[in-house]
């Protein structure tokens, strides 16, 4: 067993288990880092969960959160009150595009398309 795995197992084992008792963020980060490295080596989630001593779903959820990237946040937008830019583009699921419509024409087109 590698030293990093031994440390992770020690951190996980030292946590008081129980419903609603969260692992510290530092422990989660170490586990996720190890798990993603092992996944790159080809190990399954079940194997990794067994190695670190966690439930499969806990490990999968932590790693999925990490893969999702940073949480969404509010970003600044610029609102432009310009009649020339007030055109609508409709794109169908098959890729058909209606470009350059005003709001009334877009509503009429959507009603006609059903």
Written overview of the protein:
- With 114 residues, the chain is mainly α.
- It folds into two domains: 65 residues, Arc Repressor Mutant, subunit A; 31 residues, no CATH class.
- The chain contains five helices and two strands.
- Strands 1-2 form a two-stranded antiparallel sheet.
- A hairpin with a 5-residue loop joins strand 1 and strand 2.
- Helix 2 crosses helix 4.
- It starts with a helix and ends with a helix.
- The relative contact order is 0.09.
* Biggest sheet: strand arrangement: 1-2
List SSEs in N-to-C order. Answer: HHHHEEH
> Which class best fits the helix and strand makeup?
mainly alpha
Would you state the CATH class of the largest domain?
Answer: Mainly Alpha
**Count of folded domains:** 2
The geometry reads as elongated
* Helical residues, percent: 40-55%
What distance separates the N and C termini?
Answer: 62 Å
Spell out the key features of this protein.
mainly alpha, 114 residues, 2 domains, 5 helices, single chain, two-stranded antiparallel ribbon, Arc Repressor Mutant, subunit A
